[in-house]
Amino acid sequence: MNALVKVSGLKKVYKSGRELLTVFQDVSFELGEKRFVTLTGESGSGKSTLLHIIGGLDLPSEGRVEVGGERISEMSEQDLTNYRNQVIGFVFQFHYLLKEFTAVENVMLPAYMSGTPRLRARKWAEELIELVGLGNRREHYPSQLSGGEQQRVAVARALINHPSLILADEPTGNLDEKNSIIVTELLARIVREQGTTLLLVTHNPELAAMGEVRLALGGGALSIEEGRA
Ligand SMILES: Nc1ncnc2c1ncn2[C@@H]1O[C@H](COP(=O)(O)OP(=O)(O)OP(=O)(O)O)[C@@H](O)[C@H]1O
């Protein structure tokens, strides 16, 4: 297996006042390329914390994270910014689409902002909007789209810079069951067709069971199951 993500001996402690909270410790795992990985755990078990550390948005207290052979804690600020823009695609529970831009403009923005010529960014954004099944809605503004459609635009936006790893933090947390399944199946299809690895946080056991690798946080530790459930 070609490891895309290598996490070893990860520990996160938060300080609030004089209290220390150990969220997790001794967390080690590897994820290959093109894998559909789910992460579950009770509220407060540290799922978002783990995603933020892997995504270069937060630092571990101990341990190391390597993605694509690069050790995140050794990156300069500029390398870290590039890493977040180019290597990682983020999808959050709230889509954070910009309301004054159309769907296709929202999707192309991260590419345009990181220097891709406008026409090339737009063409790839149009293809991604097709990929998420919204070709006929690309000139719509977020307020003219349903919650599920908005989240599919956010998925397309996460793909614009050809990331190797998508970090999705409860992307269906705000959607009804039908739309949750549509968005999750879309993410699974992206893993197959675009060759990205997906790390998906979900509270929904049915969606979690869809993972080829299933991670679970609990009691400060991580457990790993591989193979089809
Ligand atoms: N900046 C912070 N300072 C102090 N404590 C924090 C901070 N961020 C998170 N925590 C605490 O760390 C623990 C893990 O939080 P985290 O958000 O990672 O959990 P989670 O599993 O994603 O929860 P949920 O399912 O509710 O989103 C929680 O107890 C939380 O209160």
From TrEMBL:
Would the keyword Lipid biosynthesis be found if you checked this record's keyword annotation? no
* Keywords, ordered alphabetically: ATP-binding, Nucleotide-binding, Transport
Residues in ABC transporter domain copies: 5-229
Task: List the GO molecular function terms.
Answer: ATP binding; ATP hydrolysis activity; transmembrane transporter activity
Q: Which SUPFAM superfamilies match?
A: P-loop containing nucleoside triphosphate hydrolases
Which cellular component, as a GO term, is one annotated location?
Answer: membrane protein complex
Tell me the superkingdom of the source. Bacteria
Would I find ATP-binding among this entry's keywords?
Answer: yes
Q: Which PANTHER family match?
A: ALPHA-D-RIBOSE 1-METHYLPHOSPHONATE 5-TRIPHOSPHATE SYNTHASE SUBUNIT PHNL, LIPOPROTEIN-RELEASING SYSTEM ATP-BINDING PROTEIN LOLD
Its family remark reads: Belongs to the ABC transporter superfamily. Macrolide exporter (TC 3.A.1.122) family.
Q: What is the name listed in the Swiss-Prot or TrEMBL entry for this protein? A: ABC transporter related protein
> Organism, per UniProt?
Sediminispirochaeta smaragdinae (strain DSM 11293 / JCM 15392 / SEBR 4228) (Spirochaeta smaragdinae)
